[in-house]
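Summary for the steering committee. The consortium agreed at its last meeting that each partner would contribute one worked example illustrating the joint modelling workflow. Our contribution is presented below. We chose a case with several input lines so that the handling of multiple components could be demonstrated. No manual editing was applied between input and output; the record is shown as generated.
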Amino acid sequence: MMLRFALRRLASLVPTLFGLSILLFAWLRLLPGDPARSLLGQRATPESIERVNESYGFNDPLLQQYLKYIWALLQGDLGTSISLKEPVLTAFWDKLPATIELTVVALIFAVVIGIPLGYYAGRHQGGWTDTAVVSTSLLGVVVPVFFLAIILKYIFAIQLGLFETANRQSSRIDAEHPTNFYVLDGIITGNLGASWDALLHLVLPGIALGTIPFAIIVRITRASVSEVVHEDFVRTAESKGLAASTINRRHVLRNALLPVVTTIGLQLGLLLSGAVLTETVFSLGGIGQYLFDAITVRDYPVLQGFILFIALMYALINLVVDLSYGLIDPRVRVS
Amino acid sequence: MTTRHLRRGVLLTVVSAMSAMGLAACGSDEPADDTSSGDGASEAEAQCQEQVDAAASAPDTGADDFIFAASADPYTLNPFHASDGETFRVMRQMFEGLVGTEPCTPDPAPLLATDWEAAPDGMSYTFTLQEGVQFHDGTPFNAQAVCDNFEYWNNQPKGPAQTEDNSYYWISLFRGFADTDPPSIYDSCATSGDTEVTINLSEPFAGFVAAMSLPSFSMQSPTALEKYNQVAAGENPTSTEYALKHPTGTGPYMFEAWDRGEQVTLTANPDYWDADAAAKTPNLTITTIEDTGARRDALINGDIDGFDLVAPGDIAPLEQEGLQIVQRPAFNILYLGMNQAQPPLDNPDVREAIALAIDKQAVVDQTLPPGSEVAIEFIPPSVNGYTEDVTEYPYDPEAAKALLAEAGEENLTVDFNYPTDVSRPYMPSPEDTFNIIRTQLEEVGITVNPVADVWSPDYLDKMQGTANHGIHLLGWTGDYNDTDNFLGVFFGRKSMEWGFENPELFSALSDARQIPTVEEQVPAYEEINKMVMEYLPGVPIAHPVPSLAFATNVEGYIPSPVQDEPWNTVVVTE
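What follows is the complete predicted structure of the assembly.
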């Protein structure tokens, strides 16, 4: 049952991605500015632009370009970056670990603090603690991420020197990177100092990036908990004389978590694709920063490849979230 | 000139001794005295000389690492295929060309060639080579290696290797390849023993020697190129094994690793040919931090030892933190262009009025880094052909108003284009520069219609690819000491940016380019500078000084106007 569901969902991805590839291809070429001029910068001359366009096939009819692109894509070739000349797929795998590490730290921050706070607020609705939690979370949503990033950096990295200001690891540290997940690499190679250093680089960007999901998780948890506590089965459990902790754990939390898990899944997708500002402020060199650079130079293959991949990941994460409902709530599995 | 402990320490000693004996002009290409840089040395040049002297007295050893933050990753590790400053920065540590530059100037100086001689017709150049040099892989550097390099450059395969994004300097200076139509102006290379080599050209090229100081024309190990750099037609030349993992030159540092997007690490070359100029710091790390603010924070935090492209607004805060600011002598021009395709900018009186309305000194004082200087023409003073004998347009708002009235343009409205989100060495804060010039123009009654665009690709596209702009801010940093590299780029032919047709100016520039020697070019370029400032296609504003920042314990960094900055002299004291 589950397997068929998963396969059906996966199959439905194919036309979605295909449509997206056409949209992306057309949309990118409608943007003003062309890659040849970006490549050549201020030194461009009409002749050199023509030579570059000819040499990279930008002069070919769009349909021909698209067919060539999609043919290569079907063979697993996402093309080569126009500006940096590295294979798009290689670049993607190269940059992804940085973004995943950042996302994980941001999510841990959002979940580990967000769910208990939201739960507490939901259980004590209307009290001053509830008000405080709600206002704090509101603050998380309204303060722009890049502003928060700069402020955090100024206070905790520059003034207090507790954390790091930029990059994924200090250049002064001698570290090897077999997997490109720097925290993990330190553990694998037995260089815990390197892991710790990489972690210190992730704390502030993680918090900055995590504030919005944190705020959303707090509010969803709070709303969900306050709804669940008024459900019949909770009242039944209470009248049965079950211990409060058992009720909370087995009945309230478990039922309240369903929308929270959906939210986390959606946020995870967003974080993976939306860390441009945080990655730039902290110079983390993940896919967000790479995408941003690609947009400024109209690097079509990078934009097409990265966005398609992000869409694919987003869809897969959603699938996993849907499947996880079954684990939390058996009713979903049956239906 | 004092003896300096530089990469070219020994050579310079020889040259200074020769110059004391009046022998310095060993090649007929040495610039004439009256045009060489140094006269009326700017504040930054004086500071640069102090850095040179300080480097000579810096300790010989210090910390093991020097960590420098660059604003971008290198494009490739094959210097021939690079043309950007960030790649060049890394290349200059590992590679050397036949020709270097005199410290603090853009002028050619001996490096792998100790001497050179141009044929009177400017069609061939004979170089005498430094002896006892070998590439990092042990291959000897000799006359044959020089020929191999020239042949390698001239025989790039068809496809991306023959386009400007990969072979910019070769194409723009040698104008083709062996198999293009027309072919390049490089004709042949002849060796005479191991230490003498002659390059024959099919056309005179006065800037040849100066051009050889560009990192693109660094000497690369023929053995390593043969082994790791096979590129077929249609293939990309920048992703070969050589370009990613095996760059092999003769420089004071050797390649260790390139962690793409993160950092490049280099180690000192233990067999460097000039023992007196061997690297003082064993390991270099050039880490990439794109964001200017992040570079500044990293330095304040002690994560890095230095960085380039300091924002003007950060200079004071960094100094307050006790960090060092080092200024590069300016080798650039910031100008206000005027697009004559947009009337009435085609009216000379209107252009003159705009020029008179601008208080350049105020622009410099209020929006550019300290040490920047007002410009009176479109080339910096250290470039051949610079002359003070040009028409100047001193700030005179009353005269500007009168001229506008005379031209019947009292109610003049102009589009004023400027870029956002960008900081170029010649244009550190365009928004600020725009604002002050706008105020000045409004004071003489001109209505300014501001048009802002993102720098890349929108702004450049609009300025250079369309006629849809009015007056605009732009500039240029010179690549090496060649006048055509400034004036020829701007005014060599009709362009969208300037929108004018001036056959007299176009042909004067094309004629000057053909003159076989720099000495003969100088008067021609002086005339062209006068002609340009009479015609006034735009207003040269300033030569902004680019700044670097360093930790307090960094010694021996010598800035160069053309960024010829090998770090063999740098020491991080403990």
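The mean pLDDT of chain A is 85. DSSP finds 15 helices and no strands in chain A.
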